[in-house]
């Protein structure tokens, strides 16, 4: 499903080159559940944005579902995002003036789906995340967990192949965090490829596989998941 | 993205910031109203002037003694023009058979009195054709009789104000008035007409032209009006008039003015004035455009994360640009519509206050104001929309 080969993402800041990702190669198969861990600034989010085609590699190749996407135009990338990828963010990124249903509807609007069909699909998606009765509520009237579930409904409404989640439980208490993770796990079991960026071990433990990033490079598992403070010990 | 969806998404964003949107909308409304009202005023002035000339009678050639030109040679020699006489009018009548009517006019000022009451008014000496040529109407009695123009019958037709002032409640018809040293019988009273190009048609006395010339002891007429049947005949009539009078006077010493040329020149001036007013109002519209730009720039910077999100859910750069352009366009068009309503109310009020002044907005100004407001919205919306379009989605999403 996902194949990165010698991918670099380089920023130039004050004349100095900064490698957010350096020579990263990896493969994620369809239906996998992968967690990405690493200290802040290690390139986790950069990798997620790259996987989601929000950003493009400076060097290297990225093959998504058998298609090379590293040199696509903006319009083509937008299309790939629409058809293949769903995003879930730590801070939900719901549009505050729109109610839950309208937020979930947004991707359909930009995909040019007709009104009647949109209504049916939105109702179905809200139902699937257990928020059918919250359709007319604005984000401010929802709890954190509910907001994240609205965001998940939005991310999956177009039927993506991959769901990319950046610290999806970062702003949630344990209980709503668990609900959100259960929901994501359920979707993964139904066939959705899931990539979760986190620094929460409890979240990472649910994944089939954990990737570790350090200074923009993939590093070997630093002394096992359980080893607290293992990151330092491993270097 | 479909048009309806675009409009509903963008209008949602505008409604979100009601006060802000409303204020920039008011700016546009004032600009558009200014354009429409000021052009209405200009256009009204043009029509008013044109109306004045039309009430003078169309297809009219006005002959006045003297040549309108600057002569520097030998003052005192051939300087004074020949008189324009009733004989000249007779010659014109013979020489221009296609003329509808040719009316000699003598003008003066004299005291008109009846019983104890006296009043200094303008005295017009004319013939029966004057009534038609100046588009006047008789309220009571009759106008000057058709007769030889050198026969000065002792009769007078009074303007309505003059008749009322002199006779009060009495019936003026058949009454006697003194005009200077002359006794004259009142045979008619004019309908109210008001001022016409500086002459108060309600406060004058009209007498036969021969009587007036004797009264003022003048030999030259004030004007001769030559009316033809169609505008096409004006040029020929002018040519003939000049030729006939030049033959009689031995030189070309009269001036012919067509009322069309005067009206046309004035209308041209007023059209330029209207454009100038529209231009001034256009400045206020462009200021309103800058208001829109300001609001949109604030909106873009506030909604940066939203732009990132739209991109993440698959919106293209073009979609983002459309969203913000649509907002600016809507502000401008709704503002324009409100401005039109304001302008309509303002011109109605003007019409109530000054019924004689036709302050109706010209159709082109209405259409132009709406189009211009839309263009203003889009032009001033481009910069903010481009700013939103250029946002890097990753950076936009990470902005809180």
**Helix-strand pattern of chain A:** EEEHEEHEHHHEHEHEEH
In spatial order, strands of the major sheet of chain A run 6-7-8-3-9-10
**What is the CA-CA span between the terminal residues of chain A?**
31 Å
Query: Segments of chain A where pLDDT lies below 50 for 5+ residues?
Result: 223-235
Radius of gyration of chain B: 33 Å
Oligomeric assembly: heterodimer
- Strand residues, percent of chain A: 25-35%
Backbone shape of chain B: elongated
Count the strands of chain B?
12
By DSSP (H or I, 4+ residues per run), the number of helices of chain A equals 8
Features:
heterodimer; A: alpha/beta; six-stranded mixed β-sheet; four-stranded antiparallel β-sheet; 8 helices; globular; disordered C terminus; B: 400 residues
Secondary structure topology:
The complex is a heterodimer of chains A (235) and B (400).
Chain A: E1 2-13, E2 16-28, E3 33-37, H1 44-51, E4 59-64, E5 67-68, H2 74-84, E6 85-88, H3 100-110, H4 115-128, H5 144-156, E7 162-166, H6 174-189, E8 193-197, H7 201-205, E9 209-214, E10 217-219, H8 230-234
Parallel strand pairs in A: 3-8, 3-9, 6-7, 7-8
Antiparallel strand pairs in A: 1-2, 1-4, 4-5, 9-10
Helix pairs in contact in A: 3-4, 3-5, 4-5, 5-6
Chain B: H1 3-16, H2 18-55, E1 60-65, H3 86-95, E2 101-114, E3 117-126, H4 130-133, E4 138-141, E5 155-158, H5 160-167, E6 176-179, E7 182-190, E8 195-196, E9 199-200, E10 204-208, H6 209-216, E11 223-227, H7 234-249, E12 254-258, H8 259-302, H9 304-312, H10 317-353, H11 363-390, H12 393-398
């Amino acid at each position: 499903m996902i194949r990165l080969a010698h991918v670099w993402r380089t920023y130039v800041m004050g004349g100095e080159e900064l490698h957010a990702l350096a020579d990263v190669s990896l493969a994620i198969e369809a239906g996998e559940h992968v967690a990405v861990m690493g200290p802040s600034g290690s390139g986790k989010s950069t990798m997620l944005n790259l996987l989601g085609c929000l950003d493009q590699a400076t060097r290297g190749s990225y093959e998504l579902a058998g298609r090379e996407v590293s040199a696509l135009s903006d319009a083509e990338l937008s299309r790939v995002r629409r058809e293949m990828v769903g995003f879930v963010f730590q801070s939900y990124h719901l549009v505050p003036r729109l109610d839950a249903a309208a937020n979930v509807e947004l991707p359909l609007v930009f995909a040019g789906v007709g009104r009647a069909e949109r209504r049916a699909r939105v109702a179905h998606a809200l139902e699937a995340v257990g928020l059918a009765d919250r359709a007319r509520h604005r984000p401010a009237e929802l709890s954190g967990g509910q907001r994240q579930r609205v965001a998940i409904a939005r991310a999956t409404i177009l039927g993506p192949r991959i769901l990319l989640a950046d610290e999806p439980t970062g702003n949630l208490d344990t209980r709503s965090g668990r609900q959100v993770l259960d929901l994501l796990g359920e979707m993964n079991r139904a066939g959705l490829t899931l990539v979760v960026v986190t620094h929460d071990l409890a979240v990472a433990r649910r994944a089939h596989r954990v990737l570790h990033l350090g200074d923009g490079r993939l590093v070997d598992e630093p002394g096992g998941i359980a080893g607290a403070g293992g990151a330092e010990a491993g270097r | 993205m479909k048009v309806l969806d675009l409009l509903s998404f963008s209008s949602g964003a505008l409604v979100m910031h009601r006060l802000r949107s409303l204020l920039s909308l008011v700016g546009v409304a004032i600009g558009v109203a200014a354009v429409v009202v000021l052009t209405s005023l200009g256009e009204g002035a043009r029509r008013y002037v044109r109306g004045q000339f039309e009430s003078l009678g169309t297809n009219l050639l006005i002959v006045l003694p003297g040549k309108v030109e600057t002569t520097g040679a030998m003052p005192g020699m051939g300087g004074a023009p020949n008189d324009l006489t009733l004989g000249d009018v007779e010659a014109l009548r013979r020489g221009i058979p296609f003329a509808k009517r040719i009316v000699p006019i003598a003008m003066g000022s004299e005291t008109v009195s009846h019983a104890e009451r006296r009043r200094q008014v303008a005295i017009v000496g004319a013939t029966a054709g004057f009534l038609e040529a100046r588009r006047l109407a008789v309220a009571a009695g009759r106008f000057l009789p058709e007769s030889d123009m050198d026969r000065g019958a002792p009769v007078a037709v009074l303007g309505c104000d003059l008749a009322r002032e002199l006779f009060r409640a009495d019936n003026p018809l058949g009454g006697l008035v003194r005009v200077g040293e002359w006794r004259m019988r009142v045979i008619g009273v004019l309908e109210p007409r008001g001022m016409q190009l500086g002459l108060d048609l309600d406060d004058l006395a009209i007498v036969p032209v021969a009587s007036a010339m004797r009264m003022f002891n003048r030999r030259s007429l004030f004007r001769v009006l030559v009316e033809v049947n169609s505008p096409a005949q004006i040029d020929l009539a002018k040519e003939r008039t000049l030729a006939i009078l030049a033959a009689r006077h031995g030189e070309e010493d009269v001036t012919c003015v067509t009322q069309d040329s005067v009206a046309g020149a004035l209308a041209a001036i007023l059209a330029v004035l209207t454009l100038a007013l529209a231009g001034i109002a256009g400045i206020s519209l462009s200021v309103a455009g800058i208001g829109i730009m300001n609001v949109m720039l604030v909106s873009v910077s506030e909604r940066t994360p939203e732009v990132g999100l739209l991109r993440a859910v698959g919106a293209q750069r073009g979609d983002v640009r459309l969203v913000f352009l649509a907002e600016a366009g809507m502000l401008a068009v709704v503002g324009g519509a409100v401005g039109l309503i304001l302008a309509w109310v303002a011109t109605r009020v003007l019409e109530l206050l000054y019924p004689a002044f036709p302050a109706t907005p010209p159709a082109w100004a209405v259409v132009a104001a709406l189009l211009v407001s839309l263009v203003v919205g889009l032009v001033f919306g481009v910069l903010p929309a481009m700013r939103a379009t250029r946002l890097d989605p990753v950076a936009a999403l990470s902005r809180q």
